[in-house]
Amino acid sequence: MSIDHSLRSRARHGGIVPFLFTVFVATIPGCSTKHVTRIEPETVTDLSGRWNDTDSRLVANALIAQSLSGEWIDRYSGTQGGDSPTLIVGTFHNRTSEHIAVNTFVRELELAYVNSGAVGVVASPAEREEIRSEREDQQEFARADSRARLGQELGANFILQGELQSIEDEETTTRFGLRRKEKVVFYQIDARIIDLETNLVVWAGQHEIKKYIERKPLGL
Amino acid sequence: MRRMLLLLATATLVSCVPKKVHEEPILENDDRVEDSSGAVQAAAVRSERARQEAAAERDALKAEALATCQAEICDAVVRGELAIGMTETQVLAATGTTGSAWSVRHAGESTIMMPTSATQAPTDIVGDVAVVQLAANQVSRYAYREPQGVRVVNSPADASTEGRAAAMAETLIREGDDLAARGEFDGALNRYDRASILTPGDPMVDYKIAAALDKALRPIEAEIQYRLFLHRLDLELIEARGEAAAELAEAIALAQQRIIILERQSTVQDQ
Fold first, then answer.
1. Nearest by CB: A117 against B21, B48, B53
2. ipTM of the complex, rounded to two decimals
3. What are the chain B neighbours of A212 within 8 Å (beta carbons)?
4. Backbone phi, then psi, for A97, in 5-degree steps?
5. Strand partners, B145
6. How confident is the model at residue A1 (pLDDT cuts 50, 70, 90)?
7. CA gap A100, A209 in Å, rounded
8. What is this structure's pTM?
9. Are B36 and A45 a contacting pair at CB < 8 A?
């Protein structure tokens, strides 16, 4: 059936207006323009209400402030002649229903420890494997005076571990045929620093985030 | 009636109103969340100051410790190992600590140095130091906290590798005895085996291994172990020791007895 025939048929049956309206509506998305701007990473940009960079930053800030001001560093340094404790970053378990990139704030935490100089950080098991492989390679191929020596690794005194948990509560109400959706999400992030020899928890930190997400129909 | 209807209508309306959360937001879109550089900077300044102070104190202690020491004590300070005869300053230098790591108590001629933190004890090259005792300002004994318990060093011989091995073996034998008393012969064997590595040729350990195997109903291995025990013994030497060897003499008699029984049992089983 040709378009011309279809138009004439619709005109005969008085359906041309809805048809044109449909074509118009279908064209609108194609005409929309893409607009990308660079914005400050510190800016809060909540779009969907799910976990985002702002939450990650809030958690990192809170855990950095709590752990660096914790007494565990002074206690260790005081008994070890002023030496800084060394730490290995362990696993942060995501026990929420969302996909959360945990490493964003874990890396920020690691960065803070290294830059502050208050806590030494040793490489993770995966990183160590690569480094060891390189070191072994050097023993065979590098000039003697430039070889990295074996058996000089530093063992960590402590391990940092943690977990994320969330509780969700939501409700959908309909008034005058319009659906209104409300949701509350509560995130609890726990971090602990544990003595690797004794299993003693020397520091425990926590940060909580509560979000209220409201979806109003037609912006009402 | 009208009032009643109005009341009903109001009640219905109230129940239909959605639950509303009345809380002031603490963070909204376009707000800013600062990074943690301020906290990191403050921690960096604090830790650097603390490190410099501790390093200065530690260096001063080391210099003082090395200026007044005898040859062997100097070597121990440089190695970072405690030794009998050290002064309080030399103990600090050997453990790389400052006064804040220790709680010092004086009682007459005696001084006791205890770690201020039980979980973060000062360490020397050998291990975690549990206590240091000084008499007339010289270390008379000290102890290490080890996985098997506290090991006391009373003399230079105790501090040697052999002395340490003997102390560890003794602790393992004690653990093995406890397990054997509870009827856990596999655990007891494990401890005795470890002890026999630390003090090879100790006939009493051989006997304990044999007895544990015997009780664990492993007759063939037990018989071999009893024979090994008797073979290793220098019977003349045992006799020369007189009463001091009474315990071993009893063990010898028991071993010989058990060998005969085990041999008979195996013969009966073969028939």
1. B48
2. 0.70
3. 21, 23, 25
4. -85, -5
5. B128, B150
6. very low
7. 14
8. 0.73
9. no
Q: Taking CA atoms, what residue in B is nearest to A109?
A: B36
Is the CB of residue B229 less than 8 Å from the CB of residue B255? yes
Hey, what amino acid is at A75?
R
What's the gap between Cα B81 and its chain centre?
17
Query: Cα B71 to chain center, whole Å?
Result: 30
Tens of pLDDT, residue by residue over B176-202, are 999 999 999 999 999 999 998 988 878
Q: Is the pLDDT of residue A29 over 70?
A: no
Which residues, 6 or more positions from A86, have their beta carbon under 8 angstroms from its beta carbon?
A: A119, A120, A121, A122, A154, A155, A156, A157, A158
A132 is written with which tokens? 């060891």
Question: Residue A43 gets which letter from DSSP?
Answer: B
* Residue B25: partners with Cβ closer than 8 Å, 6 or more residues away: A212
A44 vs B23, B29, B47: nearest CB: B29
For A33: left if phi > 0, alpha if psi spans -120 to 50, otherwise beta; the answer is: beta
Buried b (16+ CB within 10 A) or exposed e, B129-139: bbbbbbeeeeb
CB B36 within 8 A of CB A61: yes
Helix (H, G, I), strand (E, B) or coil at A30: helix
Find the helix packing angle between A71-79 and B37-67, rounded to 10°.
10
CA A220/CA A124 separation, integer angstroms: 51
Whether residues A173 and B58 touch (CB distance < 8 A) is answered with no
Q: What share of chain A is helix, strand, coil (3-state, %, to 5)?
A: 40, 30, 30
Between residues 194 and 213 of chain A, which touch chain B (CB distance below 8 Å)?
Answer: 195, 198, 200, 202, 212
* Nearest CB to B101 within list A43, A57, A81: A81
Q: Is B18 on the interface with A (CB under 8 A)?
A: yes
DSSP notation for B60-113: HHHHHHHHS--HHHHHHHHHT---TT--HHHHHHHHT--GGGEEEEEETTEEEE
3-state secondary structure B189-238: HHHHHHHHHHCCCCHHHHHHHHHHHHHCCCHHHHHHHHHHHHHHCCHHHH
Class of residue A13 by CB neighbours under 10 A (exposed 0-12, middle 13-18, buried 19+): exposed
Choose among B203, B200, B123: nearest CA to B166.
Answer: B200
